[in-house]
Amino acid sequence: MITRIPRSSFSANINNTAQTNEHQTLSELFYKELKDKFSGKELATPLLKSFSENCRQNGRHIFSNKDFVIKFSTSVLQTDKKEITIINKNENTTLTQTIAPIFEEYLMEILPQRSDALDKQKLNLKSDRKEKEFPRIKLNGQCYFPGRPQNRIVCRHIAAQYINDIYQNVDHKPHQDDYSSAEKFLTHFNKKCKNQTLALISSRPEGRCVAACGDFGLVMKAYFDKMESNGISVMAAILLVDNHALTVRLRIKNTTEGCTHYVVSVYDPNVTNDKIRIMSESKEDIKHYSLMDFMNVDYSLLKWSNDHVINQSVAIIPALPKEQLLMLKGSVDEITPPLSPATMNLLMTIGQNHQLTQLMTQLQKMPELHRTEMLTAYNSINLPGLYLAINYGNADIVETIFNSLSDPRYEGLLSKKNLINIVEAKDKNGCSGLFLAISRKDKNVVTSILNALPKLAATHHLDNEQVYKFLSAKNRTSSHVLYHVMANGDADMLKVVLDALPLLIRTCHLTKEQVLDLLKAKDFYGYPGLYLAMQNGHSDIVRVILEALPCLAQEINISASDIVDLLTAKNLARDTGLFIAMQRGHMNVIKTIFNALPTLFNTFKFDKKNMKTLLLANNSNEYPGLFSAIQHKQQNVVETVYLALSDHARLFGFTAEDIMDFWQHKAPQKYSAFELAFELGHRVIAELILNTLNKMAESYGFTDNPRYIAEKNKMETLLKKASPHTAR
């Protein structure tokens, strides 16, 4: 029978027995007691005695209780040495000391190990492992989503399907035959489980928590208390452990004899037979169980289970209707997990902000090496906790981390290299958290990051190059994230980023070259994002950039030539995006640019040379987009180009000679626009060009200009003749 000292009385006992030196922390006193015990000194050890009577083993080298955590690890600086870390939860202090390996071995022997020999009969518990009825079957990753052979069905999807079966079946029991083979499972599987899993993890229901795997039974007991007081007889929850997912089912059964049974069943798609079920007539007995008691692994999976399941923290996410979830509020608030990378990773993943906020304060008192380890919080497949928080849309978690790190109390606690590694939160392919958030169109997460960045940079004295690299957020192919935003036409997300730029320029001192590079957003092959936006007809992208330019110009000196370079959007082959837009007839893109000409003139001192460059945007062979539009019978484009010249020529100071130069501009093939239209037999376009010229001559008063008269007569003479081609 396991007995425990009440945690409240234990805390009082520590405070009463350990105040021997006002200049020493309790962690230091505790370490002194451990050394005295190892040295064989016959001295009183009240802290060690109380800890030994009340501690729980949370991992192979982690012991904890309400007040202390003791962790053993290999020294980073001296690989032949060990380190002991003592964390005082009450004082928020951390002590790390280098020790000899023999000292660690001795302490591991005297600290109480987790007992697998728990007397189930005395606790009136029954363990049910149906090994003979259902053979071991590993479903995790063994089959694919129907019709999508590239997407495996993995543990979290199977766990969600198991939860569905719990609630859909009359007896609240999944039919184990459905899980006895991959073939049978596929005929039973609901394809919606992928979205259901994401929704469950991201929904932030009440009653969720992260706890030490050794405290799994304590959490189950707390749930049973709430279930019983609110008349809930069955509850399912998804369990997240490192990079693995399981399902737990809690059931309160009232027998015909008037007895109440509390049943906990755990199903694991990876390492158990069917399920492991433990039943008790007392809720109090349930709390003595660890997650280890529900694992049934063979030798080949033993190390994996020890490293990544039973020796880590576990996130427990109840799955109940919304009105019932509210009944779980406060059920597990007092259960605190051990401070470890696994805990931090799960807290960020499931969005437990109040627990994370408490731990962020404790981290300030830890050595930088351990602090960095906690904040990066990698899981076993090298996914950082912050990356997972972003993946599941936990904007408040992201805000808490960035704001906590921006706190002046964190100044000097992290090297710039470690800080950038934490906030970039790159996955194993080099994709950063900011890239993920922007590509997932998560405005809340992106806004949280960008709003916190100025203060973060100020606190840790980041220079403009470091901020610029963070904002560049490239993927593994070195493509800028804004390239994908522009190529896909996500104008709303682009606006979120551009709206944040003026403050970042002002506070982080970004240079003009850095800002323009962000706006160009080139991919690995040198294609600007705006080139793809114009090619795909995304006029909203062009509009958002044009609207942002005046605000950006208040912070940096953007010239007219910079704007022309940006808007023509040349690739490495010198083809321009505006040329492609004209060729393909993307009228909205063309009109958006030409309608902005007055603003560009007033704000950036655009001149007629700049305007002409846009009107005659060309490809690498200096072939204008206007001519390509004529060639492809894009009459609306031709009309829009000439109309833009007609509307804005006076504003930009075009003379009669300038207008005639434009009309008589020849492509490398020595054709003017009119001659090309006539040569190709596009008579309607040719007449449009002539009529527009006549109207401009009248409007601008150069009907007596010799060049105009000669050009007009030439056009009219050609139109009176039959066109060389019959195509219209």
From TrEMBL:
InterPro entries: Ankyrin_rpt, Ankyrin_rpt-contain_sf, Toxin_15_N
Top-level lineage group: Bacteria
Positions of the ShET2 enterotoxin N-terminal domain: 130-379
SUPFAM superfamilies per the UniProt record, alphabetical: Ankyrin repeat
Protein name in the entry: ShET2 enterotoxin N-terminal domain-containing protein
Source organism of the structure: Escherichia coli
Lineage, uppermost ranks: Bacteria, Pseudomonadati, Pseudomonadota, Gammaproteobacteria, Enterobacterales
